[in-house]
Amino acid sequence: MAVDLKKPQLIELASKSVNYTLFDAKWVPSAARFVALGNNARGTGAIEVCALQEGKINVTKTFEKPAAIKCGTFGASSLEERRLATGDFKGELAVWDLDNMSQPTFKAAAHTGIVNCMDGVGGLNIGGGCPELVTGGRDGCVKVWDVRQKDSPVANMSPSEGSEIRDCWSVAFGNSFSDAERCVVAGYDNGDIKMFDLRTMSLRWETHLPNGVCSVSFDRKDIMMNKMLACGLESKFTVFDLRTQHKTKGFASVATKSHKSTIWCGAHLPQNRDVFVTTGGNGSVHLWKYKYPGKRTSGEGAEQEGVAGEVQELNRVSLSTQPLASFEWSRDKIGLFVTTAFDQTMRVAICTKLNLL
Rounded to whole angstroms, how far apart are CA atoms 189 and 6? Predict the structure, then answer.
């Protein structure tokens, strides 16, 4: 089949197989390195620091921790410190200095059971306000942590007493455009999506998708809410327009079916918030662009509501026969990304022509 070279191309640069289960990978800020996180066969946690050298992925440091590592982020750390936050299978949140991994600089018993997901804001020059982490767990709780306050979370969104506990699969910070404003969105295994306003400490909005929500992400954390991407089971993702909230209808949205499998994660390009990718259970990466409508609102006054745009597929590539369970763009090199799959392989690839979109 002929390749359309006018389109952005997704090209694998390097890959490396490992002897442990990979759950996540994150770029070390301002470096050609990333950390891979996972679970050793004996149930301990694996943290590896990897470097791109002469077209190969080389492991420069390896650490073993007491419990399997499920997720991580550098999002609450400064560019100078570049500290890694991790969540593990025993419910512990920890923050690590990559130059001294003997003991965490911050540790908290965050959840009862696995820490499924986390996000960070206020660090790396992203977002206003203090540096904070948000974690979501198998216990159904969503908790916000200030890394300077070691005793307890600064916010705890737990299931009400007597209600059914739903597994929280994904969390994300957004609306962090000032020191006062900040929101957290959480996606659950039953298809619920909840948006919490941390300024007013209230549930700002909630909706329900037909199936479990594997990934939620704002297109940018450090601006007034603009768009949000939610990916889930049954091959479907939804883009919500967050600029206009109707009092009863909520936010306008457009849903798209793709991958013919679970959509494990979605990620907006840091350099262009209208470009994003989704990764599938069939091992594929799909590249998309969101096109705004002619008018983003309809109606007047209290009845004003948002108008959703369209989603255009730009290209796709198959990288594995197993699910791609993590994906992260590089903030330093446009188009560069790292992804991990359940075939125990980490891959670094690049997407071309993104500067032309």
Answer: 39
